[in-house]
Design a protein that fits this description.
Largest sheet: 7 strands, mixed
Radius of gyration: 18 Å
Number of strands: 12
Structural class: alpha/beta
Helix content: 10-25%
Strand content: 15-25%
Number of helices: 7
Order of helices and strands: EEHEHHEEHEEEEHHEEEH
């Protein structure tokens, strides 16, 4: 199947955060007005930073809270787009059958991120089971054009054999590296990620970034993909304080995980999201 796509748009939501920190109801609305950008911000921030969030219908509320946490704390313009399998199938971008070990609908579609960004500039992919506690600008400040991607390079072997709502927990090299990635979408090596490749290559090829050399992969501090149950906060050491919490085995939106570590922070964010959404409907 051959597919050529240019200027592809999944209907992202462009949002600019106001200067004050008050959570307004319009944070959950589309196409808001410009925020104020400091003149010292680099060219990356002259346009909204593009964020693609993996979407699974079973975890719709996780997606909404992840999106809300990003918008709430961002000091730069951001554009958020869910990668919904039903939409990319309709567009002819995704046609592979779901494997038994795929715990979410975006297990492989995530690797379409450079294509969805038209192979231009930098963009981020992130799983929906994240809660952002830090300003995304701090993460965009880490981009470096010498790399094709940047990610947290975990040395991680999960203890659980079952995750989320009964899905099998798989173990493989570079586990969780692909759960949050900064893509240099215009990098020549990322143009390998065509629909044909994403729909046909193995999980090992894609999740281990085998289209790249090790030197093409930059590192991000672990606090931007803080794995619940694996990473630890060291008292008195701010460098270990999570900037983005990843509920990789399951979050409090699942009954079995409602009392997980940092679950209280997610539930608090959920309540704030609901309040903001209600205000936007008034």
């Amino acid at each position: 199947m051959s597919t050529l796509v240019t200027n592809f748009n999944l209907g992202g939501e462009e949002v600019k955060k106001p200067l004050d920190s008050k959570v307004e109801s319009d944070m959950v609305s589309k196409n808001l007005s410009n925020g104020n950008l400091d003149s010292s911000q680099n060219s990356l921030q002259s346009k909204p930073f593009r964020i693609f969030i993996g979407y699974d219908p079973r975890e719709d509320i996780a997606y909404e809270v992840c999106k809300y946490s990003l918008l709430k704390r961002s000091s730069i313009p951001i554009e958020i787009t869910p990668i919904k399998q039903s939409e990319i199938r309709e567009k002819g971008l995704y046609w592979r059958e779901r494997g038994k070990l795929e715990s979410t609908e975006f297990s492989f579609s995530r690797f379409l991120t450079p294509l969805l960004a038209n192979y231009e500039g930098w963009a981020m992919f992130v799983d929906c089971d994240f809660l952002y506690l830090g300003d995304i600008k701090e993460l965009t400040d880490l981009v470096d054009d010498k790399y094709a991607i940047k990610c947290v390079q975990h040395d991680y072997t999960p203890k659980e054999t079952i995750k989320m709502d009964g899905s099998v927990q798989t173990v493989y090299p570079r586990k969780n590296w692909s759960s949050m990635v900064l893509y240099n979408c215009g990098h020549p090596k990322n143009k390998v990620l065509t629909p044909e490749v994403v729909n046909s290559e193995s999980g090992a090829f894609l999740h281990r970034f085998q289209w790249l050399e090790d030197d093409d992969i930059g590192e991000i501090p672990f606090v931007w993909n803080f794995l619940v149950g694996h990473n630890r906060v060291v008292e008195g050491d701010p460098s270990t304080f999570p900037r983005a919490i990843h509920y990789t085995s399951g979050g409090p939106w699942f009954e079995a995980w409602k009392d997980c570590e940092f679950g209280d922070l997610w539930l608090k964010e959920l309540e704030e999201y609901k309040e903001a959404k209600e205000k936007s409907l008034v």
